[in-house]
UniProtKB/TrEMBL annotation:
It comes from Citrus sinensis (Sweet orange). This is Vesicle-associated protein 4-2.
Length: 260
């Protein structure tokens, strides 16, 4: 009996030992398969995330590239706008038009205009008071290095209460514009309308009155320039040896300058 109990106990142990590996191997295989599946899912997720990250990075680089091109273009246009406009003409006086102060009369001023560029240049005047001002010539074309003296005519309004102010200033202003043209041609005002994007504002001139009874350097200079302008006008009236600027007419009305 003791022997049988030992046998049965040994057999039970053997059976238990035989059963143990079966369950453990089953659990091990299921856990390993589960682990492999998780690894595959993780790797797939990583691959998807990696692809998505690369795509987003490429997209952001493209956007940054486009924005940098736009920004560089904006910076370039801004830099150009900040640069001073290169003058084609030299004016004398450079910022003012001097007139003798004679209320109730038409008076004259003069300004020297010289083309300092290497190409032919058209010029044109505008004024805020076209009904009381006109210029001779109102526009023209100058060859490189060529110059002329333009005469400006203005009617002086009588002052209120018959007062005679000193250093009388006027609200009237003049604007001179320039346009580069291709060689010699006849001047027509429409040139400035056809090529608006190429037109440059050379200067805005304000009117200053001088007392004709008190000599001054500005008054003396004005008299000299008017004398030169009159001499040039007489020379242009002579038959065709004239090589001066091409002028359409004498004393034409200037275009109105509408200030916004």
């Amino acid at each position: 009996m003791a022997v049988d109990e030992k046998k049965s106990g040994a057999e039970g142990k053997v059976w238990g030992l035989c059963k143990m590996p079966f369950w453990q191997s089953s659990n091990g295989s299921s856990s390993s398969s589960s682990s492999m599946q998780n690894n595959n899912n993780y790797n797939s997720s990583n691959n998807n995330n990696s692809s998505s990250h690369v795509y987003q990075q490429n997209q952001s680089q493209q956007v940054m590239g486009r924005s940098s091109v736009v920004n560089s273009s904006n910076v370039s246009s801004m830099a150009k706008s900040l640069l001073p406009t290169r003058r084609r003409l030299r004016l004398d006086p450079s910022t003012k038009l001097f007139f003798p102060y004679e209320p109730g009369k038409q008076v004259r001023s003069a300004i020297s205009i010289k083309n300092t560029s290497k190409s032919h240049v058209a010029f044109k005047f505008q004024t805020t008071a076209p009904k009381s001002c006109y210029m001779r010539p109102p526009g023209g074309i100058l060859a490189p290095g060529e110059s002329l003296i333009a005469t400006v005519f203005k009617f002086v309004e009588p002052p209120e209460n018959n007062e005679r102010p000193t250093d009388q200033k006027s609200k009237v202003k003049f604007k001179i514009m320039s346009l580069k043209v291709k060689g010699e041609m006849d001047y027509v005002p429409e040139l400035f309308d056809e090529q608006k994007d190429q037109v440059a504002v050379e200067q805005i001139l304000r009117v200053v009155f001088l007392d004709p009874e008190h000599p001054s350097p500005a008054l003396d200079k004005l008299k000299r320039q008017l004398a030169e302008a009159d001499a040039a006008l007489e020379a242009r009236k002579k038959p065709p040896e004239d090589t001066g600027p091409r002028i359409v007419g004498e004393g034409l009305v200037i275009d109105e300058w509408v200030r916004h």
